[in-house]
Automatic annotation (TrEMBL):
It comes from the Bacteria. PANTHER family: METALLOPEPTIDASE, PUTATIVE (AFU_ORTHOLOGUE AFUA_6G09600)-RELATED (PTHR11014:SF63), PEPTIDASE M20 FAMILY MEMBER (PTHR11014). This is Amidohydrolase. Residues 183-276 form the Peptidase M20 dimerisation domain. It comes from Mycolicibacterium porcinum.
Length: 400
């Protein structure tokens, strides 16, 4: 099947450059969806467009057998590109800074290879291209738009992500691989007044500062050392002028957890701390809490992961590594969870191997290698595309 890879590579590489040059933000991926649909039809798949807004699903039936879903996300980020590539983004302030253009290109290639070799496998391939991963609601929108009725039952779901690891290598992980993420907007209230007369006010800036300090104690003193929790206050805003004490402050924080019970306990603790600090400061109103941009945890099924790992080990040999759990988040799992299908999610390297090894040897990995969401993140085209395409084919054939 992979003997056709050079033929596929001939259109994959220019298609990748085109996608990278024309990134689209979440829920705006109309051009991208059109490119995907056209390529799927050319490969012979039945195409469904507009699923969940801008999602695309290609179905390739080939007799009775397992039904395998392969997923790629398609949206870009509000980042100004600084790679200097000749095919850099042509859209001001928008960039494929997370490698979703790689994911799309690899899945299109895998679908074409599978479609061109139906004598060698049996079952159904579902190539799913999901919008709006970056804002955490694209997967749910596809589910809510009737995905299950559209594609029918699914036996297994598979997905991958390119990252700052050596190109040509893949990495697997059993169990929790990506954290759940919750963003929270907290509004606390004071009593405004002149900066020269703080005694006549309830200063929301001081209140917010006390909350930030106290929140750090939740992780260090209320969570077991064996659990992984990341709690970050990313934004505080209050007032507009140096000599005016405002009447409220807004904090935005982000929480990363792997365990549902720990997540609930920490969210409860956040509310408890904020309410108590407001009372201690004499706040005239109860605080307000708003949860938004929630991502589910990604917890790989052990049996599915072992099966994919076995296929990878046979094909890639020493280029297979074990990946530790990451604090990053994804909404992929919303799809297999809604379909009742087990899943696994693996990593693909995208950094030139020599550049990566040199950075490691010099102790400059964190400074020299741009990571996802960086304006300098630029996976090398090869062997990244070949490896991602091969990985999807090998993983899919573990069932088909």
């Amino acid at each position: 099947m992979l003997a056709r890879l050079p033929e596929v590579r001939a259109w994959q590489e220019p298609l990748y450059r085109d996608l990278h040059q024309h990134p689209e933000l979440s829920h705006q991926e109309r051009r991208t969806a059109g490119v995907i649909a056209a390529r799927l039809r050319e490969s012979g798949l039945t195409v469904h467009e507009g699923v969940g807004g801008t999602g695309v699903v290609g179905v390739l039936g080939n007799g009775d057998g397992p039904r395998v879903l392969l997923r790629a996300d398609i949206d870009a980020l509000p980042v100004t590109e600084a790679t200097g590539l000749p095919y850099a983004s042509s859209q001001e302030g928008v960039m494929h800074a997370c490698g979703h253009d790689v994911h799309v290109t690899c899945l299109l290639g895998a679908a074409d290879l599978l479609a061109g070799a139906t004598d060698h496998w049996q079952g159904t391939v579902i190539a799913l291209f999901q919008p709006a991963e970056e804002v955490g609601d694209g997967a749910r929108m596809m589910v809510d738009d009737g995905l299950a009725d559209l594609i029918g039952p699914v036996d297994v779901a598979l997905a991958q992500h390119v990252g700052p690891a050596p190109a040509g290598h893949v990495a697997v992980c059993n169990g929790p691989v990506l954290a759940a993420a919750d963003s929270m907007r907290i509004t606390v209230y004071g009593r405004g007044g002149h900066g020269s007369m703080p005694q006549a006010t309830v200063d929301p800036v001081v209140l917010a500062a006390m909350i930030v300090i106290r929140l750090q104690v939740i992780v260090s003193r209320e969570v077991a050392a064996t659990e992984t929790v990341v709690l970050t206050v990313g934004s505080i805003h209050s007032g507009e002028k140096s000599n005016v004490i405002g009447d409220h402050a807004v904090l935005q924080l982000n929480l990363r957890t792997y365990d549902a019970a720990v997540r609930t306990a920490v969210l409860d603790a956040i509310r408890r701390v904020v309410v108590a600090e407001c009372q201690a400061s004499g706040s005239p109103r109860e605080p307000e809490f708003e949860l938004y941009d929630g991502f589910p945890p990604t917890i790989n099924d052990d049996a599915v992961t072992d099966r994919v790992h076995s296929g990878f080990a046979e094909f890639f040999g020493s280029r297979v590594a074990t990946m530790g759990a990451q604090a990053a988040s994804e909404d992929f799992s919303d799809i297999p969870d809604a379909l009742g299908a087990p899943y696994t999610y693996w990593g693909v390297g995208g950094i030139d191997e020599q550049v990566y090894r040199t950075a490691v040897d010099a102790g400059r990995l964190s400074s020299d290698i741009p990571v996802n969401h960086s304006p300098r993140f630029a996976p090398v085209i090869q062997p990244t595309l070949d490896t991602g395409t091969q990985a999807l084919v090998v993983a899919g054939l573990s069932w088909l």
